[in-house]
Amino acid sequence: MGLQGFRIVASVTVPRPQNTPETTDLRETVRLEKNRRRRGKPLFDDLGVENDGGAMFFSPSKIQRARDRQKEKEQERDLLQAQKKENKHQKQLAKEEKQLLTAQRKAGREEQRLQRLKEKAEKQAIQAEAQKQRIVDRQLRLELENDQKQEKKRRQALKSKQMVENEAIEVPEQEGSEIRTSRFGRQLRTAKQFDF
After folding, report:
1. Alpha-carbon distances, residue 21 vs 24, 34, 79, 154 (angstroms)
2. Which residue of 27, 116, 147, 177 is 20 to 30 Å from 101, comparing CA positions?
3. Is the model's pLDDT at 171 over the cut of 50?
4. How many angstroms separate the CA atoms of 174 and 192, rounded?
């Protein structure tokens, strides 16, 4: 088992440290130490530009100006970092607001969909009730028409029966002839030319 295999086994078996307060503090300490040891431009590089590369004399006022410039640069850098941090925070807030608006729109669409389904169900219920009412009305109308037809037939039958009775009363009986009636109750008469 070579070094490569050992690394694989070690990475699999050794638990990695979690983000605990101790590890966070250690990381911060390491970052600060790196910042202290960072190599930047020397303090007096800016002063050399003023003399065009000639001999430099360091008076206390020049040293103070150089330190002030360095502080200004650090403050600008810190300000830039703070601005970047603020921009990042604003982007995060905008993202959260956008997600909230998206969720609200989605909830609104869902509410509208449920409202449409509810209205559709109510409309279908109203249509079903109207259909039932039309069927009931049609049945009642048919029953009424049937009753009227039966009443009309009964009246016609009664009328024809009365007519037959009236005719039977009015017509004098001839001797030897018998009055014949149809199956509907009408009196049948033979033509006069056929009377013997």
Report:
1. 5, 20, 27, 106
2. 116
3. no
4. 13
Both tokens of 51, joined, read 């003399």
CA angle, 35 as apex, 34 and 37 as ends, to 5°? 65
Give the pTM.
Answer: 0.38
Question: What single string gives the DSSP state of each residue in 10-73?
Answer: HHHHSPPPP--HHHHHHHHHHHHHHHHH-----TTHHHHHHTTTS-----HHHHHHHHHHHHHH
Bridge partners of residue 55, in order along the sequence:
none
29 vs 4 pLDDT, higher one:
29
Q: Which residue has the tokens 């503090």?
A: 25
Angle at 161 between CA 158 and CA 162, to 5 degrees: 85
> What token pair was written down for 53?
């590369």
C-alpha to C-alpha distance for 86 and 92, rounded to whole angstroms? 10
